[in-house]
Amino acid sequence: MLACVLAPRPSRAQTCTFSAGPTALAFGAYDPSATAPTDSTGAFTYSCTSSRSRPVIVALSTGNGGSFNPRQMSNGVDQLAYNLYSDTQRTVIWGDGTGGSQTVSTVPQGSAHGATLTIYGRIGPGLWVTPGAYADTIVVTLNY
């Protein structure tokens, strides 16, 4: 589940909206005996009321685990380590610029004056956890 906080600078008369789609990030069934990581992608879209050439800075929260490296999904008291990245190679942790993470800067494009951004997720191999449904809540913050 993704939540969004929109944080405009006070001097701007612009608003932006956020949509947690077109695709949600979901890992599906995790196999702890697999030797390769379990990867997934998701995307979200934002749009702003006016065209502009200044970037929108997009930050992701740590989630319920309180850390960027690793983030933690929960199933009751059980946790499963994972992370979210801004690049296809899954080397740049997408966060708020602290704790070894980086934000993403994007310039709104097109008639909707927005963008669709992809989130790259990964669960490492060999994490022995109790079977069940694991989830986390990430807050997406747009600074414009």
What is this entry, summarized?
With 144 residues, the protein is mostly beta strands. It is built from no helices and 9 strands.
How does this structure look, described?
The protein is an all-beta fold and 144 residues long. Helix content is 0%, strand content 40%. The chain has no helices and nine strands. The strands form two sheets. The chain has a five-stranded antiparallel sheet, with no helix packed on it. The chain is elongated and about 50 Å long.
The largest sheet is: 5 strands, antiparallel
Q: Helical proportion?
A: under 10%
Number of helices: 0
Poorly predicted ranges (pLDDT <50, ≥5 residues)? 1-10
Described by its quaternary structure, the protein is single chain
User: Which series of helices and strands comes N to C?
Assistant: EEEEEEEEE
Distance between the termini: 23 Å
Strand order of the largest sheet: 2-3-8-6-5
Radius of gyration: 16 Å
**Strand segment tally:** 9
Task: Produce the secondary structure layout.
Layout: E1 2-7, E2 16-19, E3 38-48, E4 56-60, E5 71-75, E6 78-85, E7 104-106, E8 114-123, E9 138-143
Parallel strand pairs: 1-9
Antiparallel strand pairs: 2-3, 3-8, 4-7, 4-9, 5-6, 6-8
Give the tags.
144 residues, four-stranded mixed sheet, elongated
